[in-house]
Amino acid sequence: MWPDLIKKSKEGGLDAIETYVFWNAHEPTRRQYDFSGNLDLVRFIKTVQAEGLYVVLRIGPYVCAEWNYGGFPVWLHNMPGIELRTANDVFMNEMQNFTTLIVDMMRQENLFASQGGPIIIAQIENEYGNVMSPYGAAGKAYLDWCASMADSLHVGVPWIMCQQSDAPKPMINTCNGWYCDSFTPNNPNSPKMWTENWTGWFKSWGGKDPHRTAEDVAFSVARFFQTGGTFQNYYMYHGGTNFGRTAGGPYITTSYDYDAPLDEFGNLNQPKWGHLKQLHEVLHSTEETITHGNITTIDYHNSVTATIYATEKGSSCFLGNANSTSDATIDLHGTKYTVPAWSVSILPDCQNVAYNTAKVKTQTSVMIKKKNQAEDEPSSLKWSWRPENTDRTVILGKGHIQTGQLLDQKAAANDASDYLWYMTSVHLKKDDPIWSRDMSLRVNGSGQILHAYVNGKYLGSQWAKYGVFSDVFEKNIKLKLGHNLISLLSSTVGLANYGPKFDLIQAGIPGPVELVGRKGDESIIKDLSAHKWSYKVGLHGLENKLYSLDSPQASKWQEHDLPTNRMMTWYKTTFKAPLGKDPVVLDMDGMGKGVAWVNGHSIGRYWPSFLAEEDGCSIEACDYRGPYDNNKCVTNCGKPTQRWYHVPRSFMENDVNNLILFEEFGGNPARVNFQTITVGSVSGSGIEGDTIELSCQGQTISAIEFASFGDPQGTTGSFVRGTCEGSKDALSIIQKACVGKETCKIEVSKDVFGSINCDSSIVNTLTVEALC
Ligand code: GAL
């Protein structure tokens, strides 16, 4: 997907692509590196270069990014004597080793701008300033070391550190956030730079879909450049998908769409992509003046300001209104300009308004899902199945490792799998103080998923959600006299990626694990934490690579008695690749939680049964005015957090493909099917003098749903005519101009749509909605 995404980024007006480097992906095992296939960093940077764009390389190597363990390989955690992100020789040696490796790799390929390459900026660490104080003096020493280590690599381009208000020279402190206009770097000679302008927000299992409006993103960018900003990067411009086990959190979803200008599938998220593209064009047109001009700011009070950048050759002006409710009229050099609330107008020549952040002139596209045209799904999908073999763990309690304590999952499993079995046995005699009719098992967990079994029988499960790092599972149990087996399966949903000392947040079962016996008012506790525990990493089916066609056990699938709502079950089917080129999604409606593989490629964790919170969604259109945060403008309340899963076309063969599911909780595959994503309808509005451009992005416009020149009302999908209308038939004019075409342009004027008798307070507007 890289070339297409990079091309669309360039078309969107970007000058550079910023990317993190994921240490755990490139050094999965200590000193064994992987830069193959999609991990080929050099190829990625050269692809960006070939498109004529620059690169900002955020080496980190701690990256956060809602990525498993913030990008740290878990083997780091397991090195003797190590402490992460602080002045610790073991850690610093590993960090220096990886950072140097990346820098050398770039240098060898002449990729730094100082060598004629595309990399103009490099980053060391990531937002350490946000978490530094708990590390005390050692934190400050580490930070200084990061700076001098990076500096000693002589990359020939500036190094940045984001959110680091004490960044030592020559490191440049940069800003991250939804707004950075009031940011000032600590060094007065540093440029004002913004490494992460959050275009939306990430999603967690059980969380709603965050959206940030195009108007507000544009406002934040224009304000940043009005207030002297020199570099601004979108986080994310394209967020994509957390395939495999890359999602962190814990509880970050597989989708990392982020409401970014290029959506999860690489489609244009309109109007955001286009509204920002226009902003970029206008900003580029002011480049000479805003980079060289003298700055004058006029304060009109009430958060209204004008900024004039002037050179001898000319000047550019920004008129800003940061008031969240009232529009402002600004008198600039004798001319009056109306600036809507929460917006910035840009006048490249200080006379004509070329752009206002609140006036969206780009079409809105509504994406739809279409059935797989290659076969009649879901009925064509013939499923076979097999149980996950849990006999050794649930009945026999056999593991690979044994110790007399509860281990952190990171230590026991070294991130080889989400799954770790903890097994212990308890011998009970009648005279044991806890022996009673009322006994329970209590497990102090880490907030990750837990499934408990006692004496071969399933007892129950528990899980938490994003932001919860400890929980308690307690359930009544029946034990027998003599030997009892307790088998606990911990299933992680990504490892923590953010916060002071996040790397020490426990995964799995920190304990204690207790048996509680109740006799009347008295509770007696038997702590099993220091018992002999056996551990088994992973699942039987994963070990035998059931997800792969080359599995030695590929034949043992059964076609009869297909179970539903059965825990720990593998399902398999074949499907025909959807026709065409549109992105493909797997609809997991009806399934519980697990992992899906297409032709052996993990498309990530699925969990459609985890519904998003009920509250907080509004049916009213989102108001772009006022400060944004990720609880504003959310959708998808009460629905599956994520029902559709991206299957890149590069994972699929042309004809028959293989789909394998591991279902952990129990589900029904009867409704599982593949769909394609495409533009369903497009709409746009403009006032007299504007030109509306509609595009079905590769398809042709098939019909015009709505067209009105006057004062049309409503929003996409529900437009209605207002009180007045042009004298000519707008619908047939637009049908003639657009139907059958991929793109059409319509000039909004009385010449085209006829005279109009609207009330004088009405701004004559053309609104069009077309089907693709
Ligand atoms: C920032 C961090 C990013 C990402 C973002 C939230 O603090 O630098 O990596 O985690 O928050 O999406």
Q: What is the helix tally? A: 14
In the CATH hierarchy, the third-tier topology of the largest domain is known as TIM Barrel
What's the main sheet like?
7 strands, parallel
Q: What's the count of strands?
A: 39
Under the CATH scheme, the architecture of the largest domain is: Alpha-Beta Barrel
What is the number of independent domains? Answer: 5
Shape: globular
Uncertain regions: pLDDT < 50 for 5+ in a row? Answer: none
InterPro entries: BetaGal_gal-bd, Galactose-bd-like_sf, GH, GHD, Gly_Hdrlase_35_cat, Glyco_hydro_35_CS, Glycoside_Hdrlase_35, Lectin_gal-bd_dom
Enzyme class: hydrolase
Subcellular location: Secreted, Extracellular space, Apoplast
Organism: Hevea brasiliensis (Para rubber tree)
Quick structural overview:
With 772 residues, this protein is an alpha+beta fold. It folds into 5 domains: 1-278, Glycosidases (TIM Barrel), CATH 3.20.20; 279-359, no CATH class; 369-388 and 542-677, Jelly Rolls (Sandwich), CATH 2.60.120; 390-538, Jelly Rolls, CATH 2.60.120; 688-771, Rhamnose-binding lectin domain (RBL) (Jelly Rolls, Sandwich), CATH 2.60.120.
